[in-house]
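Support reply, case 0932

Customer input (verbatim):
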Amino acid sequence: MQEQNIEEAIRRILQEELTNDAHSDSDVSHSAGALGNGIFETVDEAIAAAKQAEEVYVDKPMAFRKKVIKAIKDGFGPHIDEIAKAIYDETGMGTVDAKVVKLKNALYNTPGPEVLEPDVETGDGGMVMYEYTPFGVIGAVGPSTNPAETVINNAIMMLSGGNTMYFGAHPGAKNITRWMIEHLNEYVYKATGIRNLVVSIATPSIESVQQMMHHPDVDMLSITGGPAVVHQAMISGKKAVGAGAGNPPAMVDATANIDLAAHDIIKSCGFDNNILCTAEKEVIVDQTVKDALIAKMQEKGAFLIKDPAVVDKIAKMTIGDNGAPSRKFVGKDATYILDEAGVKYTGKPTVVIFEAKKDHPLVTTEMLMPLLPIVSCPDFESILKTAVEVEGGNHHTASIHSESIRHINRAGHRMNTSIFVVNGPTFVATGVGDNGYWSGAAALTIATPTGEGTTTTKTFTRRRRFNSPEGFSLRSWEV
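Our regenerated output:
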């Protein structure tokens, strides 16, 4: 009976995560397309098509995979601006400008087939070679916060690895997700003659996600979503890559370049209205530089709320009865939140800042909106201890602003997060090259519960060992 109650609870939470209160039935700026171009009525039909495509695709040479990836990049490249607007129109979250940056990052910075070079070891005992080969059909679930970006990022990584993909769309972003999958298939078919490398269904639902996770022809799972969805994947019995929750603290010690720290934190916290899971969610600062940091943050576009009663009002307004952020405010502009709270302001602030205790709900909750609490501490050790505490054991992302090598090294070790950023905005960790920053590979699926961290094409391959004990060592002959 207890197990049944747990199942029912997970199902209820999962339903909440996959339902978007702000969902709009209005069409995106593109025609949805005819059923069949990668889109199917049922999960069984979609997965059967992906499996059939995989049986052909798995035998293709690496040059064919590279041709597929080039078709995706060439196809979507001219449409970045309209895709960004379509995401915003459907989800109502973030900003169009930020989505353009994220889409370009996903399209052009995601690692592809080039990272799959084999590893070879030779010696007197012959040769050992390791190669990276496909899993098969990968089942993926994407969030409404990064719907089209996740389709691109996952497709490039998984197809580069020789897999095909079933993509479970978030109901709150089903229109743009469907458009992406239909057009991806169109671009790939025109370039290569192969169909259904990426598939989905016309009407996504909680039932379809669960059916996909347990389908016998799905060989691996990649889930970007809330803890209940990730938990379902981890108990599915399949190889699972799970991208879970985060609550990234930004530490600022007494040695920090305060002007740079303020610039980077406000820029990154306000980027796409804070819906990136890597974005700074709270600041933990040495009290000796707190006032200077707050003043600089205001210069960089932040709005300071001084009245604790107003802060508590905003907390009650933006956090639901279930303890989760209200979808009404997720990804909304700072000015929208201030307007709803009845707070007067001038200009157009991008982030709302305020002082708070470390146990305040706006500190301990991953808010996904441009609200940035500031917690002050008497010294570095208390800063680090507080940062570990409020990060919540998610092992996701943290950052530090410091000129002390000792502090940087100790914080990086102690935080034990998948991503750790030093003296920079945390959006660099996703590969975003905005405003002169660039961090290399795009990373939109950050697997913290399952431990892979920032995923690449290699994440979605099997590492296979090939032994040849009789030869292939050019340095010697006799054994």
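We compared this against your earlier run and they match. Two observations from our side: The chain has a mean pLDDT of 89. Residues 307 and 442 are 40 Å apart (CA to CA). Please reopen the case if you see a mismatch on your end.
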